[in-house]
Write a structure and sequence with these properties.
single chain, 243 residues, alpha+beta, Hormone Receptor, Insulin-like Growth Factor Receptor 1, Chain A domain 2, three-stranded antiparallel β-sheet, two-stranded antiparallel ribbon, 17 strands, 33% strand, elongated, signaling receptor binding, disulfide bond, secreted
């Protein structure tokens, strides 16, 4: 062992020196050189820092630097995240996306252009005018459709979701169904109310008659019974006036 090399190191170093830091790492750790001013110091880490990718060799595991436009990478030629101002596409960082793709500022990737999609038109609605379907000759009818897929930034915009056109109907008078129905409802309520009133009155009358009858019966029970006066005509004895 070189006199400047020590084996009693800290921070995951297997061997180290006072001047260059770690010279080799313990198993499964990655060796990376960090620049401090004009000096490079070796450190041992469990994973490579941002801007580096790890490679494993039988004798040492190293962290190698990604390309300048990569923020993180899987290998030197395959980026997984780009630095600001670049868009990721197939492992590469581009300033401008290829034709047929658009840049997503949210993910900083080149994505496919999505165009708007709409459903089929619905059937035309009944011909109306001011919310009515009768009492006029010319009105309007409408039809609608729904948006199935909203477009991306460079996609084709969505079309109109409703259409209106003039329509002609056979002129007819509006039936006063609502008014007639309302009158029938009011009449039925009145009849029910009158019947209920008569029923209540009859019930009160029966109750009053029953109460009067019970009162008379009670009065009769409380009065003493009168003795029946003899019938004088029956007590008289006929007199024979023939003699």
């Amino acid at each position: 062992v070189h006199p400047n090399v020590s084996q009693g190191c800290q921070g995951g170093c297997a061997t180290c020196s006072d001047y260059n830091g770690c010279l080799s790492c313990k198993p499964r750790l990655f060796f990376v050189l960090e620049r401090i001013g004009m000096k490079q110091i070796g450190v041992c880490l469990s994973s490579c820092p941002s801007g580096y990718y790890g490679t494993r060799y039988p004798d040492i595991n190293k962290c190698a630097k990604c390309k300048a436009d990569c923020d993180t990478c899987f290998t030197r030629n395959f980026c997984t995240k780009c630095k600001s101002g670049f868009y990721l596409y197939s492992g590469k960082c581009l300033e401008k996306c290829p034709d047929g793709l658009e840049a997503s500022n949210h993910t900083m990737e080149c994505t496919s252009i999505v165009h708007c999609e709409a459903s089929e038109w619905s059937p035309w609605s009944p011909c109306t005018k001011k919310g009515k379907t009768c009492g006029f000759k010319r009105g309007n009818e409408v039809r609608v459709r729904e948006i199935i897929q909203h477009p991306s930034a460079k996609g084709n915009p969505c079309p109109a979701t409703s259409e209106s056109r003039k329509c002609v109907v056979q002129r007819k008078r509006c039936q006063k169904e609502g008014k007639g129905k309302k009158n029938r409802e009011e009449k039925r309520k009145k009849i029910n109310k009158d019947e209920s009133k008569e029923t209540r009155q009859e019930s009160k009358g029966r109750a009053a008659r029953r109460q009067n009858r019970e009162q008379r019966e009670n009065n009769n029970k409380m009065q003493p019974k009168k003795r029946k006066a003899p019938n004088k005509e029956q007590d008289l004895v006929p007199v024979d006036t023939a003699h």
